[in-house]
Amino acid sequence: KVAIKGIERELICPACKELFTHPLILPCQHNVCHKCVKEILFAFEDSFADGGSESSNQSSPRIRISASSMDRLDRINRTGRKRNSLTPRSTLFPCPSCQRDIDLGERGINGLFRNFTLETIVERYRQAARAAIAIMCDFCKPPPQESTKSCLDCSASYCNECFKIHHPWGTMKAQHEYVGPTTNFRPKILMCPEHEMERVNMYCEICRRPVCHLCKLGGSHANHRVTTMNTAYKTLKEKLSKDIEYLISKESQVKAHITHLDLLLKETECNSERAKQEASQSFEKLYYVLEEKKSAALRAIETSKNIRLEKLQTQVEEYQGLLENNGLVGYAQEVLKETDPSCFVQTAKQLHVRIQKATESLKSFRPAAETTFEDFVVDTAKQEDALGDLSFHSNGLEIPEISEEQSRMYNKALVSWECPGKTDSADIYVLEYHKLNKEEESVTWHKTEVCGKSKVLSDLDDDSSYAFRVRGYKGSVCSPWSREVIMRTPPAPVFSFLFDDKCGYNNEHLQLNTRRTSVESRAGFSLLLGAERLQVGCYTTLDYIIGDTGIAKGKHFWAFSVEAYSYLVKVGVVPGNKIQKLFHNIPDLTSPRYEQDSGHDSGSEDAFLDSLQPCTLVTLGMKKFFIPDTPAAPKDPASRILPLPSCLGICLDCDRGRVGFYDASCMKCLYECEVDCSGLMYPVFALMGGAAVHLEEAVTAKHREYHDDI
């Protein structure tokens, strides 16, 4: 006897939320109805075909794919698992119980076992729930009779008369095994789903599933540890029995936990009501403050209105008095009728002053009060932003910090952040950014949600500064905003190129990596070999290398880094018609015979040196950046030597004929000069001694903001 009434929860399919029907055992050991498995797989196939659209989720009224499952489907799409792949196709199934993507193998649903034990228990539960409902005979003519037995070999139910007819004595059918009336017909022998003609007789301890001898000999379980079915049966049954006995022995402890959980349920209800009340009180306070501010603002407007109306009304009355036979003019007309000089003079003096004021005000008419109320406009932009950020703040959530070392501004913006405690306590992050513009009075933040700790942004303007901030969310609780970090975009669109390994490339002195993004000078060994024949002087020369792509017009920017140990590196641009001059045997400028203080005329010497330079270059080396000695440069040589930035950039403006050299980490221009852009322009680099240059890598989709856990 089994206590059926209390196990309903274990008999419900996690997908359809109904009693199991032909349940299948997944590799994760969870059970799902056979029909539900097929419907979920069909829904996923439709989602793959439709690109994961929301409309594809409604293919079955019985099964609906959750948002988390659709997120996992999107990650599966991004991993590159394609339907027409040359590799053996493996079916992924989102388990509705453990929320993991389960690999069903090449056979898919056909490789799963039916859980006949669970079927039997479900059938017992159904019979207990519908004890008054009889199982009818499958072969009676209408009306059918109540069945008395079911044949396990025929998978049908019979009344007494039909059973005798279909199982006559002396035939093979008379040997069939029958039981009481049931709708659950299970096979007598469990067959292998991979080898349908073979019965399972072993148990794989690695995969935790029954297998046949062919699976062990040459199948997917060839190298797995297996045991006999009887041994596995005894072992698992013994373990299960012991665990059940232990749980039964701890019944009092379980009941105590249940009592404690009931108290927690009530406490949660009370605390939630208290939190609602406190939240309502907080908003009531805001309402009260707003109502007070509203009343004060309306009172101020009303007071100002009354004062202005009074002034204007007084002014109207004054001007009405200037009309004939009315007011001041009428009174003056009556005074003029006075014939006694002494009386007239006594009254006319004060009256004349009033008439003069009225005449002056008439000549320079101006209303006594303004009609507009521009001074009473309420600016609520900041308050609206603050109310938009209103949420539950928690001390448990750490404030994320934007890492300026890991963040980059190049062809796209890569913004990275981390938590001080190195723990990812937030479920999701919100990144906000806005362009710094002095002309705009109000700030408009652009918002984006991120699942990871970095985000790639591609919609930023060139030559602009942006402010970034981030906060973490865990449910409805959020952390305070991080410190704002300001980064500047490149002054022009990024120009992509590689080092040219053909045009003038000296593979004896220079070494390129396979991707042609890094070049290193290795001229030291050949210099030592040639030093035997040298007695005086130093005859080292620069080894040049150019970019493999030229620029004809427009404004472009590229960035690179120079190794700190580099002795001498020159960078700049070169016209296409002067490239050949770079690779000719140019006299060595570091040799003593070309000392600048040679006794010749310095002007002709400078002109000679300029003629030897077919390109525009600046000098780097020994962790320093050397500003060229030009009339516009500082006179003090020490002020022309700057620390070498970790990343340098070059901006070429062909339309204006100018080239600038930048500190690419903060996009600050270090030096700018004119350049002849009449022809095709190429990036150029020159190395001498031990030196290395690395082109800056573009920010691409590989900088993903989510973590793929498949």
From TrEMBL:
The keyword Zinc applies. One of its GO terms (biological process) is acrosome reaction. GO terms for molecular function: ligase activity; ubiquitin-protein transferase activity; zinc ion binding. Belongs to the TRIM/RBCC family. It comes from Sitta europaea. Its main location: cytoplasm. Residues 396-492 form the Fibronectin type-III domain. Keywords: Coiled coil, Cytoplasm, Cytoskeleton, Ligase, Metal-binding, Microtubule, Repeat, Transferase, Ubl conjugation pathway, Zinc, Zinc-finger. This is TRI36 ligase. PROSITE patterns: B302_SPRY, COS, FN3, ZF_BBOX, ZF_RING_1. GO terms for cellular component: acrosomal vesicle; microtubule. Residues 477-704 form the B30.2/SPRY domain. It is found in: Cytoplasm, Cytoskeleton. It holds the Pfam family zf-B_box. InterPro entries: B30.2/SPRY (IPR001870), B30.2/SPRY_sf (IPR043136), Bbox_C (IPR003649), ConA-like_dom_sf (IPR013320), COS_domain (IPR017903), E3_ligase_FN3/SPRY (IPR050617), FN3_dom (IPR003961), FN3_sf (IPR036116). Residues 187-229 form the B box-type domain. Residues 336-393 form the COS domain. SUPFAM superfamilies: B-box zinc-binding domain, Concanavalin A-like lectins/glucanases, Fibronectin type III, RING/U-box.
